[in-house]
Amino acid sequence: MLSERAAAEFIDDLDLDCLGACPMCLFDLAWTLREGRRPTHGLVNRTADWVWLEIEESLTSAVVRARMHEVPHAEDALYDLELNGWEGILVRAVVLRLACEMADEMSRSG
Fold first, then answer.
1. Which end of the chain is more exposed for a tag (fewer CB within 10 A), N or C?
2. Does residue 110 have a pLDDT over 70?
């Protein structure tokens, strides 16, 4: 079973830039984070739902490659993807990370 902490550690080893997530789909979540507010579970889920169709194939491929290289937590991450899809812990962690990076970029640019 993949925990939130294990998911966060696992995605540290993934190239998230290659996933192809639409910035507009991430914007509401990124703006909430930029403002220093804690995002609601509903906002994270809605964003994961929107982004899932864009990143499903590339994220699954990245997780399979990580599993082949025996990256820690890759097996659990793949199981979470197969069982839960966009509603899983891994996709929520990825979406939060992408939104955090976007929020940081917005803060740096003004």
1. C
2. no
